[in-house]
Design goal:
By secondary structure, the protein is α+β, with helices and mostly antiparallel strands. The protein is rod-shaped, with a radius of gyration of 39 Å. It folds into 3 domains: 121 residues; 62 residues, Orthogonal Bundle (Helix Hairpins); 148 residues, 2-Layer Sandwich (Heat Shock Protein 90). It is 62% helix and 11% strand. The strands form 2 sheets. It has a 5-stranded mixed β-sheet with strand order 2-4-5-7-6. The chain has a two-stranded antiparallel ribbon with strand order 1-3. The chain is built from 11 helices and 7 strands.
């Protein structure tokens, strides 16, 4: 289009009068401004920029007509240059703005009649021609504005469609990831249920044997008694791990009642703080006063909150930090409910691990089983809610849970 405008301006420059320097400079200014108008006025707000674009083009057209009119400016063959600001207004403004700027352009052209009528008389034929010129300016403005308005509507429709497709595509990807994760959970659940069951039986035998051995060892043999105690304690630890595997594999049976989310959070936080010697963690609570009770399984939700709080304590380490817990009303996918956020000041989750943290058996802890967040995600899914990591790497971990109220 820039080449087309340069070609048109070049053609006008070749018409008589060719040697009129003012005409050539004005045509050059019109051509350059037509090409670079938005760049020249880029610092202005969109509304003011569009107004200045049309106004400057009207002024340039008026100056060109004044320098090429013989014997009078209104008789200039270059009066057609007024179509440039009129068409620009039609593409930049709605119907009302288009008619206003076309009227201003017409008034600028007709303004030359004021001095001319002092020397010349406007004949009926001249009145007709002048009226036709102004009429065609308005006609061109209306036609171009209709096409421009329809184009803007289609562009806006395509933009909204693109946004909807992007959201739909994102939801589809999330659904596909959820299906793949559920398939992995089902397969791993069956495997762990069988393995855990087979391990628990020999563990019971080992523990019983260690207890009997400890009873028969004489008090003088302290080393043997200590070793028997180690066996018993390690069996208890292994039994706890096996129990977590079974909890992961066992189908959940929810016993939902309407519960107060702040009360569940406070119980979980108290249990975590009482069970840890770490005193460097400061807990900040921010519960919205308008929270309503939600139908949840109290024990399972308390387990979710306890796991997330323990993870936050462990992430912040011995130096401690701040754990912020908030609960507020929220909406998700057209459902109302409660959004709970756990935010710590630890190192956060690296970008390459963000897609894996809810997978079973994935852990960065030396002694972890990798089932904590998997069980948390499963419990939230069974409640019809959602959990996601909302923070950026290096900002600490921030988990957001949504529990539906209905």
């Amino acid at each position: 289009m820039d080449l087309v405008w340069l070609a048109l301006i070049g053609f006008l420059a070749l018409l008589n009068p060719r040697l009129e320097i003012h005409k050539q400079l004005i045509l050059l200014a019109i051509g350059l401004f037509q090409i670079f108008d938005r760049k020249l006025l880029a610092s202005l707000p969109a509304g003011r920029r569009n107004a200045y674009i049309v106004l400057i083009k009207i002024l340039l057209a008026t100056v060109l007509v004044g320098h090429t009119g013989t014997p009078t400016p209104s008789a200039s063959p270059y009066w057609l240059i007024y179509y440039v600001p009129v068409v620009s207004a039609a593409t930049l403004f709605e119907a009302g703005g288009t008619l206003l700027w076309t009227a201003i352009a017409s008034a600028a052209y007709c303004s030359y009649l004021i001095p001319e009528l002092q020397e010349f008389e406007l004949t009926p034929a001249g009145e007709t021609e002048l009226a036709l010129r102004v009429l065609f300016l308005f006609l061109a403005a209306i036609i171009v504005n209709q096409f421009a308005t329809e184009n803007r509507r289609q562009a806006e429709s395509y933009r909204r469609l693109a946004e909807e497709l992007a959201v739909t595509n994102q939801r589809l990807q999330q659904a596909q990831e959820e299906v793949r994760r559920n398939e992995r959970l089902a397969a791993l659940g069956q495997l762990t249920a069988g393995v855990a069951h087979e391990i628990r039986n020999p563990l019971g035998v080992i523990k019983g044997s260690a207890e009997m051995l400890a009873q028969k060892i004489s008090a003088e043999d302290a080393l043997a008694g200590e070793l028997a105690g180690y066996i018993s304690s390690e069996v208890d630890r292994l039994n706890g791990i096996v129990s977590r595997f079974l909890d992961f594999a066992r189908p959940l049976q929810l016993h939902c009642r309407r519960e107060s989310v702040p009360a569940l959070l406070d119980r979980a936080l108290k249990a975590v703080s009482d069970g840890r010697k770490q005193n460097g963690v400061r807990v900040e609570r921010n519960y919205d006063a308008s929270l309503e009770d939600v139908p949840v399984d109290a024990d399972l939700c308390e387990q979710v909150f306890t796991n997330l709080a323990i993870n936050a304590y462990q992430a912040m380490g011995e130096h401690g930090g701040t754990l912020r817990i908030s609960a507020r009303p929220a909406h998700s996918d057209g459902r109302r409910g409660v959004e709970i956020e756990f935010a710590d000041t630890g190192p956060g989750v690296p970008a390459e691990l963000r897609e894996q943290i809810f997978n079973p058996f994935f852990t960065t802890k030396r002694e972890g089983t990798g089932l904590g967040l998997s069980i948390v995600s499963r419990i939230i899914d069974e409640h019809g809610g959602s959990i996601r990591l909302a923070s950026e790497p290096g900002e600490g971990a921030r988990f957001r849970i949504f529990l539906p109220a209905d």
